Amino acid sequence: MSTEITTTRPGSVVEKQEWARALAPSRLLPQAYRDNPANLFLAAEFADALGIERINALTSIHVIEGKPSASADLMAALVRRAGHRLRVTGNDQAARAVLIRADDPEFEYVAEWDLSKARQAGLVGKGVWTSYPAAMLRSRAITEVCRMAASDALLGVIYSPEELGAEVDGAGQPTRPTHVTAGRVTAAELLGQEEVPAEPEAPAEVIEDAEVVEPGITPAQSKRLHTLVTRLDMDRDTKLAGLSRIAGREITSSKDLTETEAAWAIDGLAAKVAALDVEGGA
């Protein structure tokens, strides 16, 4: 088995890195993705896992407090693509969603939401529930029945942004990424670290012409990288060659990596370890 960190096949770590770097400068991206290749890389991971176009993930997949979420419409599309039947009816008083699995056509899974149930859940009174009750009831019914009957088609993305506490609009899209981070996950979150509070920003006149320097590899990342390299029994030259491909520049030590580059390297190595474990268990 090859011990290279990456390959050049479509959808590989290298290809996703190039895609993320090329797209990051776009001013048309949602705010959470602008100038943030790491967040775009994560969006590509979710899109590829779900089998949807990556551009759709940028508007349909949102990460709320570290958990991926999807719109009710995307969930509905995924379960229908899997061959299941989904029927939704309702108005501004109640909504009913019925799901019939392709492998069990004789049974109906049903989820019903009305204003009484929403009131009991503490939802009625929120701005979006006052303005768009029919849309919110429909969304709750769809996501509940999809979780109940076809979670296998959702691949772990089983909640909508609103269900995870985000403030949303009538289409179910997050509107206020304050303490809830819509569509944004840092490298620290990817590694399960506690994120260190950012230092206060310097006055504009001080940083106006300053060079922006990305943080370097963290101690936790360095430890994780060493563990993965040891697991794959990689020699130093192979490791440095792979890290140089990821960074797009010569790397003479893992300490040369930025935090983002380290996150990408760890992702690639972890995928190799996972593949090795699968082969070993076969």
What's the arrangement of secondary structure elements?
Layout: H1 13-23, H2 37-50, H3 54-60, E1 61-64, E2 67-70, H4 72-81, E3 85-90, E4 94-100, E5 109-114, H5 115-120, H6 127-131, H7 133-150, H8 187-190, H9 204-207, H10 219-231, H11 236-247, H12 259-281
Antiparallel strand pairs: 1-2, 3-4, 4-5
| Separation, N- and C-terminal Cα atoms | 14 Å
| Helix-strand makeup class | mainly alpha
Overall number of domains: 3
| Shape summary | elongated
Total strands: the figure is 5
Major sheet: order of its strands? 3-4-5
Mean of pLDDT: 77
List the helices and strands in order. Answer: HHHEEHEEEHHHHHHHH
What low-confidence regions span 5 or more consecutive residues with pLDDT below 50? 1-10, 177-212
Structure summary:
By secondary structure, the chain is mostly helical.
Describe the structure in your own words.
This protein has 282 residues and is mainly alpha-helical. The chain has three domains: 8-65 and 168-185, no CATH class; 72-159, no CATH class; 186-193 and 216-282. It contains twelve helices and five strands. It has helices at 13-23, 37-50, 54-60, 72-81, 115-120, 127-131, 133-150, 187-190, 204-207, 219-231, 236-247, 259-281, and strands at 61-64, 67-70, 85-90, 94-100, 109-114. The chain has a three-stranded antiparallel sheet. Strand 4 (94-100) and strand 5 (109-114) form a beta hairpin. Helix 1 packs across helix 2 (37-50). The protein is elongated. The two termini are 14 Å apart. 34% of the residues are buried. The model is unreliable at 1-10 and 177-212 (pLDDT under 50).
